[in-house]
């Protein structure tokens, strides 16, 4: 076999970081050596991660070379005023605009207008200086930057200008159209700056990698550079098999943001509880991960607190266990034009859990197409109240008959190994 190709991967999220942002490149790095690619991963030495999952450190490939360089982050300074509020904003839990405190409004304004494109922008220049030296000394000719945070693409942009190396810009999420962008209270100048940086990155990288077809279409209006879709996926997890929950559990796993508050679901559940005594006795709602106060307040308003199990953040391993033993899995995306392109990373783990998925999101969502094609669940728009209620009742009757199951098809294309093979062909 020939000498492995060296690939420098510039990413912010890496174990012990928890949450969805870490999974994509952690898994690519795991499988890249099988395709004769040597992954070299550049990460911050002292990051401010909003979520920690120490269990993920055992999943880092022994064949990966890890480079670390110090970062200065304003989140550390801002936490002097309110560690809780700073951590929530850092993790994407942005309060409803009507309920934001003066401090929250100030933090969001500072984040959006003084740190462009994001709070990790102060890492760009030190990283360029460090990596230029490393790239030259180690004869590296290909790099990947992964965002968000999109500051990392500015590292790639400068390395491209200075060294003319091959650069792949990987967008796990869109840039200027991402859901929380509107919440950042951007000035006209800041908004213009974001769009200018986005355009420069998209027109300077050799190839753009995105996770959905809608993002590809959106970016094609800005650049003529090649754009490849490589979705997120699932890995083969060695998880001990547990019996299904005894109760009729509906589980949401991951961050439950304020704008993902599905009133139609809470209403349907409230009606079923009032109309069906058996349902009332058997139903439980499990929330696993960071949940916004607005969502919890709405659940209380619909008198569902007696059925709520709010477990908070758990390790990735525990999250997968809950996916596989819950009766039904819930997937919710914000109801807006901008979020049609978002394919939540947890979707793919949901799909191999062998549990039916109830998904709620905007019309024409990319993830609706995947759920339908793989026969792993049912997708609803935000105005499908009665249809959702009827499906919940159908699933409950199947649960009573011990016949609630899913018959998935075509999942192999979304395995992390298959996706890494696609990536390796693109890079090589």
Entry keywords:
about 425 residues; alpha/beta; 6-stranded parallel sheet; 16 helices; 13 strands; about 15% strand
Describe it for me?
By secondary structure, the chain is an alpha/beta fold. Helices cover 39% and strands 16% of the residues. The chain is built from 16 helices and 13 strands. The chain has helices at 23-31, 74-78, 83-90, 102-113, 124-137, 151-163, 188-204, 213-220, 263-275, 277-282, 293-301, 316-325, 346-351, 366-374, 385-400, 416-427; strands at 5-10, 37-44, 65-69, 142-147, 166-171, 207-210, 227-229, 248-253, 283-288, 308-312, 328-332, 357-360, 377-380. The protein has a 7-stranded parallel β-sheet with strand order 3-2-1-4-5-6-7, with helices on one face. A 6-stranded parallel β-sheet has the order 10-9-8-11-12-13, sandwiched between helices. Helix 14 links the parallel strand 12 (357-360) and strand 13. Helix 5 crosses helix 6 and helix 6 (151-163) crosses helix 7 (188-204). The longest helix is centred in the middle third of the chain and has 17 residues, at 188-204. It is globular. The two termini are 14 Å apart. Mean pLDDT is 90; it is low at 76-83 and 85-91.
Question: Could you give the order of the helices and strands?
Answer: EHEEHHHHEHEHEHEEHHEHEHEHEHEHH
Number of strands: 13
Mean of residue pLDDT values: 90
Q: Which class of secondary structure composition applies to the elements? A: alpha/beta
Q: Enumerate the strands of the largest sheet in spatial order, edge to edge or round the barrel.
A: 3-2-1-4-5-6-7
What level of helicity do the residues show?
A: 25-40%
What is the number of helices? Answer: 16
Q: Can you summarize the main beta sheet? A: 7 strands, parallel
In what range is the share of β-strand residues?
15-25%
How far the N terminus sits from the C terminus, by CA atoms, comes to: 14 Å
What sort of overall outline do the alpha carbons produce when their principal axes are compared?
globular
Q: Give the radius of gyration.
A: 22 Å
Q: Which stretches of 5+ consecutive residues score pLDDT under 50? A: 76-83, 85-91
């Amino acid at each position: 076999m020939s000498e492995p190709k060296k690939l420098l991967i510039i990413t912010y999220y890496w174990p012990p970081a928890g949450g969805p942002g870490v999974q994509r490149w952690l898994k690519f790095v795991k499988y890249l050596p099988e395709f004769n690619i040597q992954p070299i991963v550049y990460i911050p030495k002292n990051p401010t991660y909003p979520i920690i999952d120490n269990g993920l450190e055992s999943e880092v490939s022994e064949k990966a070379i890890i480079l670390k360089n110090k970062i200065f982050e304003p989140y550390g300074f801002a936490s002097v005023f309110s560690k809780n509020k700073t951590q929530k904003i850092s993790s994407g839990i942005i309060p409803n605009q009507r309920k934001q405190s003066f401090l929250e409004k100030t933090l969001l304004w500072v984040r959006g207008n003084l740190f462009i494109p994001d709070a990790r922008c102060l890492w760009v220049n030190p990283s360029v200086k460090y990596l230029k030296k490393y790239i030259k000394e180690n004869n590296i000719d290909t790099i990947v930057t992964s965002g968000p945070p999109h500051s990392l693409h500015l590292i790639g942009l400068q390395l491209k200008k200075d060294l003319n190396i091959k650069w792949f810009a990987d967008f796990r999420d869109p840039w200027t159209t991402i859901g929380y962008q509107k919440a950042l209270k951007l000035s006209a100048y800041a908004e213009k700056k974001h769009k200018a940086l986005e355009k420069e990155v998209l027109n300077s990288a050799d190839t753009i990698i995105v996770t959905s077809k809608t993002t590809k279409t959106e970016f094609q209006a800005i650049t003529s550079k090649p754009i490849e879709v490589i979705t997120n996926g699932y890995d083969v997890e060695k998880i001990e098999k547990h019996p299904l929950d005894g109760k009729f559990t509906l589980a949401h796993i991951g961050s439950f943001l304020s704008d993902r508050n599905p009133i139609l679901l809470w209403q349907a559940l409230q009606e079923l509880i009032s109309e069906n005594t058996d349902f009332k006795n058997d139903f439980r709602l499990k929330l696993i991960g960071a949940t916004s106060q607005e969502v919890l307040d709405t659940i209380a308003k619909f008198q569902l607190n007696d059925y709520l199990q709010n477990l908070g953040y758990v390790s990735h391993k525990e999250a997968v266990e809950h996916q596989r033993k819950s009766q039904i899995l819930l997937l919710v995306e914000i109801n807006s034009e901008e979020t049609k392109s978002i394919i939540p990373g947890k979707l793919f783990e949901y799909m191999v859990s062998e549990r039916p998925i109830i998904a709620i999101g905007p019309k024409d969502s990319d993830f609706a197409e995947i759920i339908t094609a793989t026969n792993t669940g049912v997708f609803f728009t935000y105005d499908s109240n009665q249809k959702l209620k009827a499906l919940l009742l159908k699933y409950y009757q199947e649960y009573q008959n011990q016949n609630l199951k899913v018959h998935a098809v075509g999942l192999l294309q979304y395995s992390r190994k298959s996706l890494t093979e696609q990536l390796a062909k693109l890079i090589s």
